[in-house]
Amino acid sequence: MTPEKFQMFENRLLKNYKHRLKQAKRLNVTCWRLYDHDLPEFPICVELYEEYIYIAEYNRRHALTDEEHDIWFNETKKIIADMTGVSIDKMFVKLRKRMSHREGQYEKEAVTESKIITVQENGLQFLVNLTDYLDTGLFLDHRVTRQMVQAEAKDTHFLNLFSYTSSFSVYAAKAGAKSVTSVDLSKTYLSWSEENFKLNQIAASSAYQFIHADVKQYLKTLPVNFYDLVVMDPPTFSNSKRMKDILDIQRDHVELINDMLKAMKPGGILYFSTNFTQFIIDTEQIKSDQIKDITKATTPFDFEGRLKRWCYKIIKPLG
After folding, report:
1. What pLDDT is recorded for position 96?
2. Residue 56 is assigned to a structural domain of this protein
3. Cys-Cys crosslink for 311: which of 51, 132, 226, 273, Cβ 3.0 to 4.6 Å?
4. Same domain (yes/no): 241, 152
5. Tens digits of per-residue pLDDT, 93-151?
6. Would residue 45 count as lying in a domain?
7. What is the domain extent for residue 232?
8. Residue 127: inside a domain, yes or no?
Protein backbone atom coordinates (compact mmCIF):
# COMPACT_ATOMS: atom_id res chain seq x y z
CA MET A 1 0.00 0.00 0.00
CA THR A 2 1.50 3.31 -1.07
CA PRO A 3 1.78 6.42 1.10
CA GLU A 4 -0.54 8.13 -1.40
CA LYS A 5 -3.31 5.57 -0.67
CA PHE A 6 -2.98 6.12 3.08
CA GLN A 7 -3.13 9.88 2.48
CA MET A 8 -6.34 9.41 0.48
CA PHE A 9 -7.83 7.43 3.39
CA GLU A 10 -6.75 10.08 5.89
CA ASN A 11 -8.29 12.83 3.76
CA ARG A 12 -11.61 10.97 3.43
CA LEU A 13 -11.66 10.16 7.13
CA LEU A 14 -11.00 13.81 8.01
CA LYS A 15 -13.78 14.99 5.73
CA ASN A 16 -16.24 12.51 7.27
CA TYR A 17 -15.10 13.20 10.81
CA LYS A 18 -15.38 16.98 10.65
CA HIS A 19 -18.81 16.87 8.99
CA ARG A 20 -20.35 14.10 11.09
CA LEU A 21 -18.87 15.12 14.44
CA LYS A 22 -20.48 18.54 14.04
CA GLN A 23 -23.87 16.92 13.35
CA ALA A 24 -23.47 14.37 16.14
CA LYS A 25 -22.79 17.14 18.66
CA ARG A 26 -25.73 19.20 17.40
CA LEU A 27 -28.08 16.19 17.75
CA ASN A 28 -26.46 14.96 20.98
CA VAL A 29 -25.64 11.62 19.32
CA THR A 30 -22.75 9.70 20.90
CA CYS A 31 -22.86 6.51 18.78
CA TRP A 32 -22.44 7.03 15.04
CA ARG A 33 -20.83 5.68 11.89
CA LEU A 34 -17.66 7.41 10.73
CA TYR A 35 -16.72 5.46 7.62
CA ASP A 36 -18.09 2.58 5.54
CA HIS A 37 -15.93 1.26 2.71
CA ASP A 38 -15.79 4.69 1.05
CA LEU A 39 -12.52 3.72 -0.69
CA PRO A 40 -11.96 0.26 -2.25
CA GLU A 41 -8.46 -0.04 -0.74
CA PHE A 42 -9.94 0.37 2.75
CA PRO A 43 -12.82 -2.16 3.02
CA ILE A 44 -13.76 -1.42 6.61
CA CYS A 45 -16.66 0.04 8.57
CA VAL A 46 -15.79 2.33 11.49
CA GLU A 47 -18.32 3.21 14.20
CA LEU A 48 -17.91 5.28 17.35
CA TYR A 49 -19.56 4.11 20.55
CA GLU A 50 -18.79 6.99 22.87
CA GLU A 51 -15.14 6.52 23.92
CA TYR A 52 -14.73 3.27 21.96
CA ILE A 53 -14.41 2.40 18.28
CA TYR A 54 -15.78 -0.68 16.53
CA ILE A 55 -14.14 -1.67 13.23
CA ALA A 56 -15.62 -4.30 10.93
CA GLU A 57 -13.27 -5.41 8.18
CA TYR A 58 -15.07 -6.77 5.14
CA ASN A 59 -13.52 -9.90 3.66
CA ARG A 60 -12.27 -8.84 0.24
CA ARG A 61 -9.82 -10.43 -2.18
CA HIS A 62 -6.54 -8.56 -2.01
CA ALA A 63 -2.96 -9.22 -3.01
CA LEU A 64 -1.52 -8.55 0.45
CA THR A 65 0.42 -11.20 2.33
CA ASP A 66 -0.47 -11.69 6.00
CA GLU A 67 2.51 -9.56 6.97
CA GLU A 68 1.56 -6.81 4.50
CA HIS A 69 -2.03 -6.94 5.72
CA ASP A 70 -0.90 -6.48 9.33
CA ILE A 71 1.20 -3.47 8.34
CA TRP A 72 -1.74 -2.01 6.36
CA PHE A 73 -4.20 -2.54 9.21
CA ASN A 74 -1.88 -1.17 11.90
CA GLU A 75 -1.32 1.98 9.85
CA THR A 76 -5.07 2.26 9.22
CA LYS A 77 -5.83 2.05 12.95
CA LYS A 78 -3.11 4.61 13.67
CA ILE A 79 -4.75 7.07 11.24
CA ILE A 80 -8.14 6.49 12.90
CA ALA A 81 -6.62 6.97 16.36
CA ASP A 82 -4.85 10.20 15.36
CA MET A 83 -8.04 11.55 13.80
CA THR A 84 -10.51 10.67 16.56
CA GLY A 85 -8.33 10.76 19.66
CA VAL A 86 -9.46 7.23 20.53
CA SER A 87 -6.46 5.06 21.42
CA ILE A 88 -5.86 1.77 19.59
CA ASP A 89 -6.45 -0.20 22.80
CA LYS A 90 -10.03 1.11 22.76
CA MET A 91 -10.64 -0.22 19.24
CA PHE A 92 -12.37 -3.55 18.69
CA VAL A 93 -12.10 -5.33 15.37
CA LYS A 94 -14.29 -7.94 13.66
CA LEU A 95 -13.64 -9.66 10.34
CA ARG A 96 -16.87 -10.19 8.44
CA LYS A 97 -16.52 -13.29 6.25
CA ARG A 98 -19.21 -14.02 3.74
CA MET A 99 -20.59 -17.52 4.13
CA SER A 100 -20.49 -19.44 0.87
CA HIS A 101 -24.05 -20.79 0.95
CA ARG A 102 -25.83 -17.44 0.99
CA GLU A 103 -24.79 -13.96 -0.01
CA GLY A 104 -25.28 -11.43 2.74
CA GLN A 105 -24.93 -13.86 5.62
CA TYR A 106 -21.76 -13.68 7.69
CA GLU A 107 -19.86 -15.91 10.02
CA LYS A 108 -18.15 -14.54 13.08
CA GLU A 109 -14.59 -14.85 14.26
CA ALA A 110 -13.56 -16.42 17.55
CA VAL A 111 -13.32 -14.02 20.51
CA THR A 112 -10.90 -14.33 23.41
CA GLU A 113 -12.27 -11.64 25.73
CA SER A 114 -15.67 -9.94 25.70
CA LYS A 115 -16.10 -6.19 25.81
CA ILE A 116 -19.60 -5.05 26.80
CA ILE A 117 -20.33 -1.37 27.43
CA THR A 118 -23.38 0.80 28.16
CA VAL A 119 -24.14 3.63 25.75
CA GLN A 120 -26.72 6.44 25.64
CA GLU A 121 -29.20 7.29 22.92
CA ASN A 122 -31.82 10.01 23.37
CA GLY A 123 -31.65 9.69 27.15
CA LEU A 124 -32.01 5.89 27.06
CA GLN A 125 -29.32 3.31 27.78
CA PHE A 126 -28.35 0.23 25.80
CA LEU A 127 -25.88 -2.59 26.22
CA VAL A 128 -23.42 -2.82 23.34
CA ASN A 129 -21.16 -5.81 22.77
CA LEU A 130 -18.05 -4.86 20.80
CA THR A 131 -16.56 -8.34 20.50
CA ASP A 132 -18.82 -11.38 20.58
CA TYR A 133 -21.20 -10.95 17.64
CA LEU A 134 -21.23 -9.61 14.10
CA ASP A 135 -23.42 -6.72 15.20
CA THR A 136 -23.04 -4.71 18.37
CA GLY A 137 -26.63 -4.90 19.66
CA LEU A 138 -27.68 -1.43 18.52
CA PHE A 139 -28.45 -0.83 14.84
CA LEU A 140 -27.33 2.77 14.35
CA ASP A 141 -29.15 3.09 11.01
CA HIS A 142 -32.54 2.90 12.79
CA ARG A 143 -31.87 5.79 15.19
CA VAL A 144 -34.47 8.00 13.47
CA THR A 145 -37.01 5.16 13.16
CA ARG A 146 -36.76 4.57 16.92
CA GLN A 147 -37.66 8.22 17.50
CA MET A 148 -40.70 7.81 15.23
CA VAL A 149 -41.85 4.86 17.33
CA GLN A 150 -41.24 6.86 20.49
CA ALA A 151 -43.45 9.69 19.20
CA GLU A 152 -46.34 7.31 18.46
CA ALA A 153 -46.12 4.70 21.23
CA LYS A 154 -48.02 6.33 24.10
CA ASP A 155 -51.11 4.30 25.13
CA THR A 156 -50.57 1.75 22.34
CA HIS A 157 -50.27 -2.02 22.26
CA PHE A 158 -46.81 -2.32 20.70
CA LEU A 159 -45.35 -5.41 19.01
CA ASN A 160 -41.68 -5.80 18.04
CA LEU A 161 -41.07 -8.72 15.66
CA PHE A 162 -37.56 -10.08 15.03
CA SER A 163 -36.86 -7.85 18.01
CA TYR A 164 -33.09 -8.50 18.32
CA THR A 165 -32.04 -6.68 21.53
CA SER A 166 -35.36 -4.80 21.66
CA SER A 167 -34.17 -1.21 21.42
CA PHE A 168 -37.50 -0.30 19.75
CA SER A 169 -39.30 -1.92 22.68
CA VAL A 170 -37.35 0.16 25.20
CA TYR A 171 -38.36 3.32 23.33
CA ALA A 172 -42.02 2.23 23.28
CA ALA A 173 -42.10 1.25 26.96
CA LYS A 174 -40.48 4.51 28.08
CA ALA A 175 -42.90 6.47 25.90
CA GLY A 176 -45.86 4.99 27.78
CA ALA A 177 -47.11 2.07 25.68
CA LYS A 178 -49.89 0.05 27.36
CA SER A 179 -48.17 -3.19 26.44
CA VAL A 180 -44.88 -4.09 24.78
CA THR A 181 -44.26 -7.53 23.27
CA SER A 182 -40.85 -8.46 21.85
CA VAL A 183 -40.53 -11.62 19.75
CA ASP A 184 -37.30 -13.26 18.63
CA LEU A 185 -35.97 -16.74 17.86
CA SER A 186 -32.81 -16.15 19.91
CA LYS A 187 -32.90 -16.67 23.67
CA THR A 188 -29.58 -14.82 23.88
CA TYR A 189 -31.09 -11.69 22.33
CA LEU A 190 -34.23 -11.94 24.47
CA SER A 191 -32.08 -12.10 27.59
CA TRP A 192 -30.13 -9.09 26.30
CA SER A 193 -33.49 -7.36 25.73
CA GLU A 194 -34.49 -7.89 29.35
CA GLU A 195 -31.17 -6.41 30.46
CA ASN A 196 -31.85 -3.33 28.32
CA PHE A 197 -35.22 -2.94 30.08
CA LYS A 198 -33.54 -3.20 33.49
CA LEU A 199 -30.91 -0.63 32.45
CA ASN A 200 -33.70 1.85 31.79
CA GLN A 201 -35.49 1.18 35.11
CA ILE A 202 -38.46 -0.40 33.33
CA ALA A 203 -39.92 -2.59 36.06
CA ALA A 204 -40.86 -6.17 35.22
CA SER A 205 -44.57 -6.34 34.45
CA SER A 206 -47.08 -8.54 32.67
CA ALA A 207 -47.40 -5.63 30.23
CA TYR A 208 -43.85 -6.32 29.01
CA GLN A 209 -43.40 -9.72 27.39
CA PHE A 210 -40.40 -11.35 25.76
CA ILE A 211 -41.50 -14.21 23.52
CA HIS A 212 -39.18 -16.92 22.21
CA ALA A 213 -40.78 -17.91 18.90
CA ASP A 214 -40.48 -18.31 15.15
CA VAL A 215 -42.18 -15.10 13.97
CA LYS A 216 -43.58 -16.67 10.81
CA GLN A 217 -45.48 -19.22 12.91
CA TYR A 218 -46.21 -16.81 15.77
CA LEU A 219 -48.08 -14.44 13.49
CA LYS A 220 -50.66 -17.16 12.80
CA THR A 221 -51.57 -17.26 16.52
CA LEU A 222 -52.27 -13.56 17.11
CA PRO A 223 -55.73 -12.16 17.94
CA VAL A 224 -57.33 -9.96 15.29
CA ASN A 225 -57.58 -6.17 15.57
CA PHE A 226 -55.39 -5.84 18.67
CA TYR A 227 -52.08 -4.07 18.00
CA ASP A 228 -51.79 -0.33 17.39
CA LEU A 229 -48.09 -0.08 16.55
CA VAL A 230 -45.71 -2.71 15.14
CA VAL A 231 -42.07 -2.93 14.07
CA MET A 232 -41.02 -5.78 11.81
CA ASP A 233 -37.33 -5.96 10.88
CA PRO A 234 -36.71 -9.50 9.57
CA PRO A 235 -33.45 -10.96 8.31
CA THR A 236 -33.01 -11.27 4.56
CA PHE A 237 -32.76 -15.03 4.85
CA SER A 238 -32.85 -17.55 7.68
CA ASN A 239 -32.72 -21.32 7.78
CA SER A 240 -32.28 -21.75 11.51
CA LYS A 241 -32.85 -25.27 12.80
CA ARG A 242 -35.29 -23.79 15.33
CA MET A 243 -37.60 -22.68 12.52
CA LYS A 244 -40.23 -24.87 10.89
CA ASP A 245 -39.59 -23.25 7.53
CA ILE A 246 -36.95 -21.23 5.70
CA LEU A 247 -37.44 -17.47 5.72
CA ASP A 248 -36.77 -15.66 2.45
CA ILE A 249 -37.86 -12.05 2.81
CA GLN A 250 -38.50 -11.33 -0.86
CA ARG A 251 -40.66 -14.45 -1.16
CA ASP A 252 -42.32 -14.21 2.26
CA HIS A 253 -42.85 -10.50 2.93
CA VAL A 254 -46.42 -10.37 1.62
CA GLU A 255 -47.52 -13.24 3.87
CA LEU A 256 -45.73 -11.74 6.89
CA ILE A 257 -47.19 -8.27 6.37
CA ASN A 258 -50.74 -9.47 5.65
CA ASP A 259 -50.73 -11.77 8.68
CA MET A 260 -49.60 -8.80 10.77
CA LEU A 261 -52.25 -6.47 9.32
CA LYS A 262 -54.97 -8.93 10.44
CA ALA A 263 -53.76 -8.60 14.03
CA MET A 264 -53.67 -4.79 13.93
CA LYS A 265 -56.44 -2.35 14.74
CA PRO A 266 -57.83 -0.31 11.81
CA GLY A 267 -55.55 2.71 11.50
CA GLY A 268 -52.70 0.80 13.15
CA ILE A 269 -49.14 1.49 11.98
CA LEU A 270 -46.58 -1.09 10.85
CA TYR A 271 -42.96 -0.14 10.31
CA PHE A 272 -41.44 -2.74 8.00
CA SER A 273 -37.71 -2.77 7.28
CA THR A 274 -35.33 -5.03 5.37
CA ASN A 275 -31.60 -5.05 4.66
CA PHE A 276 -32.09 -6.90 1.35
CA THR A 277 -30.69 -4.32 -1.07
CA GLN A 278 -32.54 -5.78 -4.10
CA PHE A 279 -35.88 -5.91 -2.27
CA ILE A 280 -39.03 -5.03 -4.21
CA ILE A 281 -42.19 -4.56 -2.17
CA ASP A 282 -45.28 -6.17 -3.70
CA THR A 283 -47.81 -3.40 -3.10
CA GLU A 284 -50.47 -5.12 -5.22
CA GLN A 285 -50.65 -8.13 -2.88
CA ILE A 286 -50.40 -6.29 0.44
CA LYS A 287 -53.81 -5.54 1.96
CA SER A 288 -53.26 -1.84 2.52
CA ASP A 289 -53.63 1.20 0.31
CA GLN A 290 -51.33 3.23 2.55
CA ILE A 291 -47.79 2.00 1.96
CA LYS A 292 -45.17 4.73 2.16
CA ASP A 293 -41.46 4.33 1.47
CA ILE A 294 -39.82 6.16 4.38
CA THR A 295 -36.27 4.98 3.71
CA LYS A 296 -35.00 8.50 3.07
CA ALA A 297 -36.96 9.98 5.99
CA THR A 298 -35.43 7.42 8.37
CA THR A 299 -31.85 7.78 7.11
CA PRO A 300 -29.59 9.24 9.84
CA PHE A 301 -26.95 11.85 9.00
CA ASP A 302 -24.11 9.30 9.25
CA PHE A 303 -25.71 6.96 6.68
CA GLU A 304 -26.62 9.47 3.96
CA GLY A 305 -25.71 8.03 0.58
CA ARG A 306 -24.51 4.77 2.16
CA LEU A 307 -27.72 3.23 3.56
CA LYS A 308 -28.26 -0.41 2.57
CA ARG A 309 -31.77 -1.02 3.85
CA TRP A 310 -35.38 -0.20 3.04
CA CYS A 311 -38.07 1.05 5.41
CA TYR A 312 -41.83 1.36 4.89
CA LYS A 313 -44.72 2.76 6.91
CA ILE A 314 -47.83 0.66 6.32
CA ILE A 315 -51.22 1.65 7.77
CA LYS A 316 -54.10 -0.77 8.17
CA PRO A 317 -57.20 0.51 6.31
CA LEU A 318 -60.06 1.83 8.45
CA GLY A 319 -62.72 0.07 6.40
Report:
1. 64
2. yes
3. 273
4. yes
5. 997 654 444 444 444 445 568 999 999 999 999 999 999 998 999 999 999 999 999 99
6. yes
7. 139-315
8. no
pLDDT digits (tens, 9 = 90+) for 283-317: 999 999 999 999 999 999 999 998 989 999 999 99
Q: What does the buried/exposed string (b/e) look like for 227-237 if buried means 16 or more CB atoms within 10 Å of the residue's CB?
A: bbbbbbbbbbb
How many domains is the chain built from?
Answer: 2
- The CATH number given to whatever domain includes residue 259 is 3.40.50.150
Last residue of a domain, one of 121, 155, 180: 121
> Are 208 and 259 within one domain?
yes
Q: Evaluate if residue 213 carries a pLDDT over 90.
A: yes
pLDDT at 104: 43
Do residues 153 and 299 both lie within one domain?
A: yes
The answer to whether residues 94 and 152 belong to one domain is no
